[in-house]
Amino acid sequence: MKPLLSKATRPFLIYVLIILIISIPVYYFVVDTIWKNELDEHNRIVVDKTSYALNRLKLSDEQLDQSIALWNHIQPGTNIQNIKNGDHLKDSVFTILKQKSYSTDSNIDRFRCLSTIIHLRNRPFRFTVETNIEESQETIAAIAVTTVFFFILIVAGLLFLNRKLSASVWKPFQDTLGKLKTFNLNTQSHIQFDTTDTTEFEELNQSLNKLIEHSVSVYKTQKEFTENASHELQTPLAILKNKLDILLQDDDLTEKQYDIAEDMNKALTRSSRINKNLLLLAKIDNSQFDNSEVIGFDSLLRQSLDVLHEHFEQKSITVKTQISPDIKINGNSSLTEILINNLLINAIRHTLPNNSVLVTLTNSTFEVANFGEKELNTESLFKRFSRASEDNSGSGLGLAIIKEISSFHHWTISYKFENDHHIFSVYL
Question: CA 50, CA 47: separation in Å to the nearest integer?
């Protein structure tokens, strides 16, 4: 990620660079055109001045021819000739490439030429003037170097101003961002944003204040509902279960009445478990758990394996473990224990008797693999009340809870089916 100013500056610099590249040929064309116009004017002045000077001398025809011959011999770049047959007596302006006749340099130069008609002693002559225009390239080079220099100066100044602006203009935004990072709904601490004279930042702070106040209000309402539901629902459920337990111990019950009471007891137990799981999910969603503990994951895992040892033995399931020692993580120990127990209980419930379960723990992965006959539906696997199998004894919330706990800790939970084994992996 890049700062906002850098993102805005880069397109600007690219744009300026493109304009600079485009400007160089434009400069060349404009300056060359101006240069040619100036040379055309210069050539016209040379023609007029020469014509005026020769007419003013009032030479005879013989002297004029001698003067013209001498002029053509000693004045390079100009030529005065008698009118030839077929000459249309029209002026022309053109550019030619040739080697300098008066120099040993073999380079080819550009010349701007003017060919026009002058009258000397009332006789028409074709006067051609040639002026070197190669100097325009040097002018273009000087302009290009100057432009590049100022471009570098602009870039350096822009980068310098960016740093200054980041430290001054964006300071209110950085302060607001820092306070938002430290805000926690659990503590419900009030944020007091600093007053700023920048309209956009002030509007942002006011909008954030309203949003935070609304979020805190909703959070309090949800938390109160969760606490009330936990108290109000669990108490009658516990009373009903206690009454059913007493009823089931009554010797006067017929077998039919006992079966009905036992079914009611199972349904009530499942309802109580679903209620507890839903309340747990609500608390996780409301961020009502602290995740700043340092947890010994390997110790929690071994403790859960010991607690569930009898359940493994009842189904003759062999537990194979590959547990790395001293695995420390940051999180919530209660939620981590629930995640471990849910994965292990899920493996026990869906593993056929006389099979094995492999439990693996490394610095980066916690994995539980158990035997299975076919792959589970991955699309609905971690959804609430979805069924991983035809077994209806569970609440349908175990894997959903695992998913939420993993998200709470910023872990990743995944499932795959390989070599007739269901493999659930938690990437720590």
Answer: 5
